Amino acid sequence: MAYKHILIATDLSPECHLVLEPATKLHQSLGCKLSLVHVIEPLSMSFGADVPIDLGVLQEQQTRQADERLAEVLPDWPALQREDCHLRYGQPRAEIHQLAEEIGCDLILVGSHGRHGLALLLGSTASDLLSAAPCDVLAVNLKKD
Ligand code: AMP
């Protein structure tokens, strides 16, 4: 199957090139469009809504940091245009699935640490994305040498 539009889900971490690299190779070999998404998780999700601090200010800071990090990463990946990179707020699975539908992606590329057992229970974005995905999901093994 030839994919036409790949959505790269990235945490913008120092290891994000491990997902961006195969995405670029797929782009070159299939001639498909590339988009990228990074989801900023609202702090109220982590701390609950009753924290007595101004979460708005912290969220602005989170957005600024994500924007700056994106600006650092992008020059290494000329196949990705800034206008095809999306910063979203919310729960990663919901936001990534919704964006994939909105912009018509047929493949989501995500990194996987290959966790199992208790570590998996604590959360894996890759396995979360598989559930009710609107298109195919390809997990890139982040543990490879
Ligand atoms: P994790 O399972 O959270 O360690 O993350 C594994 C992979 O999920 C990363 O390599 C990214 O591809 C993707 N990912 C994690 N967090 C985010 C995020 N906030 N936004 C978009 N993708 C993410």
Going by helix content, strand content and strand pairing, the class is alpha/beta
| Text of the CATH class | Alpha Beta
Oligomer: single chain
CATH fold assignment: Rossmann fold
- For the report, how would you describe the main beta sheet? 5 strands, parallel
**How many beta strands in the DSSP annotation?**
5
Could you list the spans in which at least 5 consecutive residues all have pLDDT below 50?
A: none
Cofactors and ligands present? adenosine monophosphate
Number of helices: 6
Strand content: 15-25%
| Residues in helices, as a percent range | 40-55%
Instruction: Report Rg.
Output: 16 Å
Question: What is shown here, in short?
Answer:
The protein has a single domain (5-141), classed as HUPs (Rossmann fold, 3-Layer(aba) Sandwich), CATH 3.40.50. It has six helices and five strands; from the N terminus they run βαβααβαβααβ. It has helices at 17-30, 43-47, 55-73, 92-102, 118-121, 125-130; strands at 5-9, 33-40, 85-89, 107-112, 136-141.
What are the key terms here?
5-stranded parallel beta sheet; alpha/beta; 41% helix; binds adenosine monophosphate; single chain; Rossmann fold; 145 residues
List the helices and strands and how they pair.
Layout: E1 5-9, H1 17-30, E2 33-40, H2 43-47, H3 55-73, E3 85-89, H4 92-102, E4 107-112, H5 118-121, H6 125-130, E5 136-141
Parallel strand pairs: 1-2, 1-4, 2-3, 4-5
This protein binds adenosine monophosphate.
